Amino acid sequence: MDCDGQNGKDVVIDCCINDLHYGSFKAVRDTHIPIKKQKITAFIGPSGCGKSTVLRCLNRMNDIVRGFRFSGHVHFGGRDIYHPSIDAVAVRRHIGMVFQQPNPFAMSIYNNVAFGLRLNRYKGSVAEKVEEALKRAALWNEVSDKLQKSGLSLSGGQQQRLCIARAIATDPKVLLMDEPCSALDPISTRKIEELMLELKTHYTIAIVTHNLQQAQRVADETGFLYVDTSEGGRTGYLVEFGDSKQIFEDPQQQHTKDYIGGAFS
């Protein structure tokens, strides 16, 4: 497929996947998604279409999966993050991630947020950075008087916001969120969505969501992925990508129309 270069100066990550394998299994093919600066980009599609796999490509989280092979490129900061000279750990300092299930460490709220700062040997005031991150994650007012309590003592929604604070404490340029609300109740989900809209003033965000209404509410651009079963397997690929309003109100591809219309899930 044609994925030559980034699509304009506002593109922070240019992701081009020709083929992505786990061992002999081809998980994703023919997928090109530009992630634009200070926008929220959503990946939607049925189960097994490779949404999370594509997201994890953006900061090399798939590297830890045995048998992972990748053909294509992910350009970030003018370089391909899959070039042999690039350190995957360094990539993840600039491209943070929040997972589906809240996963705070079994340590204090304060130490959860400070963890990455200490790991990266931050030279400034750790306390100030912790407070700043908790404020940006809309959690400071709820935890400022109990920073030494365990992060595991918080509610599910608070734990997810703590994980967001932990991810942004090291000042990443991009924040990846893999189904960040799927384990949360509707009130907590609304808070996370409001937080995402606030965070995009500081960060570029890419999310995976199975919730079409959520993608409509928060995403500036949306990519729809589908599953190719023509060769007897299940290989995900990008069907359509564009402005979210266009994707949801005037999709150009029949698979997209069917999915948006509820013909399958």
Helix count equals 10
Indicate the structural class.
Answer: alpha/beta
Number of domains: 1
CATH class assignment: Alpha Beta
Rg over C-alpha atoms, rounded to the nearest angstrom: 18 Å
CATH topology category name? Rossmann fold
Number of strands: 10
CATH homologous superfamily grouping = P-loop containing nucleotide triphosphate hydrolases
SSE diagram, text form:
Layout: E1 11-22, E2 25-36, E3 40-44, H1 51-57, E4 68-76, E5 79-80, H2 88-94, E6 95-98, H3 109-119, H4 126-136, H5 140-143, H6 156-168, E7 174-178, H7 186-199, E8 204-208, H8 212-218, E9 221-228, E10 235-243, H9 244-249, H10 254-260
Parallel strand pairs: 2-10, 3-8, 3-9, 6-7, 7-8
Antiparallel strand pairs: 1-2, 1-4, 4-5, 9-10
Helix pairs in contact: 3-4, 3-6, 4-6, 6-7
Structure characteristics:
265 residues, alpha/beta, Rossmann fold, 10-stranded mixed β-sheet
What does this structure look like?
With 265 residues, this protein is of the alpha/beta class. The protein has a single domain (11-260), classed as Rossmann fold (3-Layer(aba) Sandwich). Helix content is 33%, strand content 27%. The protein contains 10 helices and 10 strands. A 10-stranded mixed sheet has the order 5-4-1-2-10-9-3-8-7-6, with helices on both faces. A hairpin with a 2-residue loop joins strand 1 (11-22) and strand 2. The chain is globular, with a radius of gyration of 18 Å. It starts with 10 loop residues before the first strand and ends in a 5-residue tail after the last helix. The relative contact order is 0.18. The model has no long low-confidence stretch (mean pLDDT 94).
